[in-house]
Amino acid sequence: MGDRYSGHPKALQLFAALIRDDTEFQGNVGMFLHQRDWLLIRDIESAIDEMIARLSDSEQTCLGRISVYQTSEYPLSFAGISALLPEVSKYQLKENIIQPLKRRQLLYYDRHLTSYHLHPLVREKGEYLLNQNPEHFRTAHSQAYNYYISIPLKPENGAECEIKLIYCTIINNFVDTVLICQGVASK
């Protein structure tokens, strides 16, 4: 459970309610954990779908666009989010989009890593939103690519190799994505 849901508050609430209210478990956490077939995927996805449905258009757009970043592998900075939403002022982005996403626990800020983080289930939903429009999909990937290539290399601290790896990964993913969108799937 911990790996799949990464401690998402809504998932934990659903698990707690099930353990507390279900006549089979009667509050027994050990019995619940012993039965590995209780994943509640449908309930958790429904809860996330409901939260996303209540988002404004700009919040949904942001969620979809930032899903292109591999936040589990690379830090997601405010600059990275801003690069995906050039039509929105930095103030509007911070106050009217990022803060509401954080309040709804769809986007987290890790102060130790100084980066934002999307829960894997939320990222999956963001990808779904983005994939609904092929033009938005291409634009988001292109903007992410442009953001990464704009980051200055700092060879004195050894980051050059890591940034080149990021560029290569992004370029390969972008090319594969464009080919898939054009119906030329690579195998």
Summarize, please.
The chain is built from ten helices and two strands, in the order αααααααββααα.
Kindly describe this structure:
By secondary structure, the chain is mainly alpha-helical. Helix content is 64%, strand content 4%. It has 10 helices and 2 strands, in the order H-H-H-H-H-H-H-E-E-H-H-H. It has a two-stranded antiparallel sheet. A hairpin with a 4-residue loop joins strand 1 and strand 2. Helix 5 packs across helix 7 and helix 5 crosses helix 8. The chain is elongated and about 55 Å long. The two termini are 33 Å apart. The mean pLDDT is 78.
Tell me the β content. Answer: under 5%
Main sheet: strand order: 1-2
Query: How many distinct beta strands?
Result: 2
Computed Rg: 19 Å
- Which residues sit in consecutive blocks of at least 5 with pLDDT less than 50? none
Secondary structure: helix percent: 55-70%
Summed over residues and divided by their number, the pLDDT gives a mean of: 78
Distance between the termini: 33 Å
Q: In this structure, how is the largest beta sheet organized?
A: 2 strands, antiparallel
Shape: elongated
Instruction: Summarize the helix and strand pattern as letters.
Output: HHHHHHHEEHHH
Structural class: mainly alpha
Tally of individual helices: 10
